[in-house]
User: Fold this.
Amino acid sequence: GPLNATAFPNTIEYNGANQTILNLVAGTGGYHNLIFSNSGTKTMMPTSGGVALKINGDFTISGTAFGTAVNPLATKGNFIINPTAGFTTGAFTHQIGGNFSSNGSFTASNGSTLEMNGTASQSIGGAATPLLLNNLSISNTGGTVSTARDLTVSGDFTNSGILNMGSSILSVTNTISNTGTLLTGVPAAQSLTPFPSGKNWGGTVVYNVDAAQNAVAGNFTNLTINNGVGVKVTNAAQIGVSGTLLINSSKKLSIDASNSLTVSGAITNNGGTAGLILESNSAGNASLIHNSDN
Assistant:
């Protein structure tokens, strides 16, 4: 009978040179596993209305093959770009339900979005260089999205899930829309700005490593201190918290002399007397401004 390309565990491999990739939109449509290999440019066939090319399993590009998108991708599994291979996004939103790993070339066109929309834990990995993106969206509903590489976003950053940056740096040029959670584990010795400063951060931002960290300037809805060595408000950083400032047990937040922290919501200090420290010296005194009855 006819091959059902979308059925588990079928794999379709395009292993020629320059090829046109069919977008199988009839019926349930799409592929289960899709591989671009060998060499040449693999160009995805456009469809009326820009219907996404569906991949229910993994999408892998290997050899010296380059994929060029002319429609969105909706990949439920992993998206893997091997060394010497590449992918150009076009101005589309590409949804990844599994892990994203690029050890080759990933060219994010203007107007494109990489969306991590899985329902379990996901990772963004690959080469030990910054991943250059236009727009980044985290919409995972069931797990944490983690990364081991710096993410440089030239457009907008949207997060409704949990993004754990670990010891990697998040850079965003344009708009930040955060209704989820951002965790950072970058020590001050590595960077004083592990995520963009002077921005409005909704959701929750968590300092999440036991090493000295610098508090980044900005306005936060919720700010959580999960650092046993300490997070310090210094360098005249202007920091405001409109929701909850939470200091976890055995964790520390200190405000350097002549610096201030403004909290208009609740302060929950589970760190005790050592959890919240206001410093002073000949230059002046630290201040905590708490505009709340909590």
User: Anything to note?
Assistant: The mean pLDDT is 94. The chain has no helices and 37 strands. The first strand starts at residue 11 and ends at 14. Residues 161 and 211 are 25 Å apart (CA to CA).
